[in-house]
């Protein structure tokens, strides 16, 4: 009898604590990247088309033209910036925002909304809470996107900008995020070169890559190389670039040849080729 009672108690506990898990109608997803030095993250829910017409003017479409849309399912789509950015040229402070949209046949209106507690409640939308409001052109896709998708791509070579793409069914829209990291890097250079001599090299390379004061860059590079009997070939190569920029072709040639020799000893063919190209440009 005692054993039967134990079994009954266990059974009751399993019923009380057990939960039935089923797939979500609109699965959650997130995408993130770094633009410059800024973390950009998007969290959203992904409804599927399921044979329905998504955008249009017909009464049966999922998202009517000209009507506010939470841009996804459930609580809508949230975008987060770790630093101040510009979105389509509009200054947006760091923080979390909801993305609301008003789709159209050839143009969408997009809003970044400050009060994320609103979630997907489009009926409570308040223009006073807008951090940005802008228009972007829509594009027709050649392949159907069954499940609503948000991507961050088209990252610029200098990493100063990227595009957020919203895609569903046969429609795509993109808007541009710009992150100006120069002030942040300059502040870091000022702080870190005072306490760590190894940062002089990174500071010098940043200056030459971004067209800043090359005399300052050369001073920092010389400090990075100071006291090193066997200077690294990569540092010598960057010094040669700085010397070239300052118009010191003879000095650049001598430094580049030293870099080439050091790269050869290290069996680094990439830097040998880079130095050969640099030396051609000095003749």
How would you portray this structure in words?
With 283 residues, the chain is of the alpha+beta class. It folds into 2 domains: 23-178, no CATH class; 182-281, Serine Threonine Protein Phosphatase 5, Tetratricopeptide repeat (Alpha Horseshoe). 33% of the residues lie in helices and 32% in strands. It is built from 7 helices and 11 strands. The protein has helices at residues 2-17, 182-192, 199-209, 214-225, 233-245, 249-265, 269-281, and strands spanning 27-35, 38-46, 55-56, 63-64, 77-81, 85-87, 90-92, 95-102, 107-113, 130-153, 161-178. The strands form 2 sheets. A 9-stranded antiparallel beta sheet has the order 1-2-5-8-9-10-11-6-7, with no helix packed on it. Strands 3-4 form a two-stranded parallel ribbon. The longest helix has 17 residues, at 249-265. It starts with a helix and ends with a helix. The model has no long low-confidence stretch (mean pLDDT 89).
Cα end-to-end separation: 101 Å
Query: H/E series, N to C?
Result: HEEEEEEEEEEEHHHHHH
Number of domains: 2
What is the CA-atom radius of gyration, in angstroms? 28 Å
Largest sheet: 9 strands, antiparallel
User: Strand percentage, roughly?
Assistant: 25-35%
Q: Classify the secondary structure makeup into a structural class.
A: alpha+beta
Mean pLDDT, nearest integer? 89
Shape: elongated
The total beta strand count reads: 11
- Low-pLDDT ranges: none
Question: What topology, given as strand order, has the largest sheet?
Answer: 1-2-5-8-9-10-11-6-7
How many helix segments?
7
Helix content: 25-40%
